[in-house]
Amino acid sequence: MAYIDELLGRGEQILYVARQHVFVLVSHILTELTLIAVLVAAGVASDIAFRTNTTILFGAMTASSFILLICAVISVIVLISGFLDFLRWNTEQYIITDRRVLQIRGVLNKSVIDSSLEKINDVGLRQSILGRMFNFGTIEILTASGDEGVNVMDRITAPLEFKRAMLEAKHNYDRGYGYLPSQTAYESTEYANSAHGDIQRTLEELAALRDRGILSTDEFEAKKREILSRI
Questions:
Q1: I want to staple 64 with a disulfide (CB 3.0 to 4.6 A). Which of 38, 50, 59, 77 is the partner?
Q2: Using one digit for the tens of pLDDT, what is the confidence trace for 142-163?
Q3: What would the mean pLDDT of 86-97 be, rounded to a whole number?
């Protein structure tokens, strides 16, 4: 069972799933590769500089070999850091359900931030020129918790689609059909509007019969109460 499945309530449905843009991962990897390249260059330069230096530092290890070893160890640490960056990027998710918005972070140790749809007051969006070019941006959710109720989703993919999906989910939730798919909610609204129109026409016909003297005022009021009680 996926971790998200353990977080969902009974009947809760996932509407939209997003994660940080791959640009974030690539920028981290490029930084780490650049650092590795610098370390390799430093190791080669030190080997050339200390090649004639036969001073023994540790056992049979010369100064040149010692510097090369340090550069190799640091390079391995940087590679491991790059792998962890990938795991963090792969496991970080931003999920919209029909009840709330979830932010899930962490590989082994999980961190979950939960924003109920009913408590969301406003949604902010920030996109740089680069973000608009590559379709990523930062979403800020302001909830009813005051200054502390600001949840930031940094550089997520397709932020406009995420914001639109979140506002639609809140719209449906506020109108009492947040647990229904969007199409079903739309059909429910259309049905309610149609039923309201039928009732209005029926009341107008009864009023016309009353005005013509076919129905008495008491009979009209009784029929009116009977029809309105069905709503």
A1: 50
A2: 876 655 557 888 899 999 999 9
A3: 88
pTM: 0.61
The structure tokens listed for 23 are 């640009």
pLDDT of 1 above 70:
no
The answer on pLDDT for 188 being more than 70 is: no
Structure confidence at residue 4 as a pLDDT band (50, 70, 90): confident
Residue 6: predicted pLDDT: 83
What is the rounded distance in angstroms from the CA atom of residue 50 to the CA atom of residue 197? 92
Backbone φ and ψ for 214, nearest 5 degrees, come out as -75, -35
Count of beta carbons in the 10 Å neighbourhood of residue 105: 14
Between helices 217-228 and 182-211, what is the axis angle to 10°? 170
Six-digit token pair at 28?
Answer: 């981290």
Q: Please give the Cα distance from 210 to 231 (Å, whole number).
A: 22
How far is the C-alpha of 208 from the C-alpha of 78, rounded, in Å? 84
- Which SS3 state, helix, strand or coil, does residue 220 take? helix
The answer to whether 96 and 167 are in contact (CB under 8 A) is no
Question: Virtual CA dihedral for 21, 23, 28, 34, nearest 10 degrees?
Answer: 170
- Please, which residues bridge with residue 93 across strands? 104
Question: What does the domain layout of the chain look like in residue ranges?
Answer: 3-20+92-174, 22-90, 182-228
